[in-house]
Amino acid sequence: MDVTFEGTRREIATAEGILRYHEAGEGPPLVLLHGSGIGVSGWRNYRDNLNVFARHFHCYVLEFPGFGISDPVGGHPVIAATSSVTRFMDALDIESAAIIGNSMGGVVGAHVAMQHPVRVDKLVTIGGVGPNIFSQAPSEGTRLLRDFADEPTREKLVRWLDCMVYDPAMVTDERIEERWETAKDPSSHETLAAMYGSEAAVAQQRALETSDAPPYWAMMRKIQCPTLLTWGLDDRQCPPDMALVPLRLVPRAELHVFPQCGHWVMLEAKEAFERVALEFLLR
Fold first, then answer.
1. In CATH, what number is assigned to the domain containing residue 270?
2. Which residues belong to the active site?
3. How confident is the model at residue 68 (pLDDT cuts 50, 70, 90)?
4. Contacts of 152 (CB under 8 A, 6+ apart)
5. Is residue 217 over pLDDT 80?
């Protein structure tokens, strides 16, 4: 398999613009959804895992609208991302698929599973889902994202990257530079500000205080597919106490926590995550 950036890069036109993605492997469909954050992309989240999963699955790494790669659309980034998943699956005639979602991608996968249960065979989340119970909200990582969204600098990017991992050696010069390059894209920064900027935080708090709608995580009993929650024990973006509510509410949920691991489980605990996720997906 040619599991390189150029060898896997694809795009497809939809009624709401072009969606770009990476495709590799044969077998049952597996859709991989990236997280949010500074200079993020699906390829950067999963490029080190794609070769392993593509040995068993027909993998699709979707690039969400508004992060500087797929065409942007209006609305809140999480809502836009959720609708893009079913739009993407419809465009490629994928009736149902397993989903792996990192952080925001896990939240998006949970939304798809709640709104369109027949479209999701199994769900694997990597941090992200659920509310803070014992840990501070906003978390350390979210506060660092807010600082960057309000006034982006390379130094603030490095501070946030350090917060994402347990092992500081993961924050290489290459990772810093590629993230900084994407973060300078106006579309990418607009999406980041809409999620994490100070103005967005005030608006979100106001909406919580005035709305009678329950938070998404309170509705997670609607997720009927087998669900694997994975977490880094040392996650400072989405601390592991967040896993307790979805673990209780999702009827067929199980949890695996990786020691000495931060937010990017699929990178920092690469081999262990792949082994655990494949056992679950192939079970």
1. 3.40.50.1820
2. 263
3. confident
4. 38, 183, 184, 189
5. yes
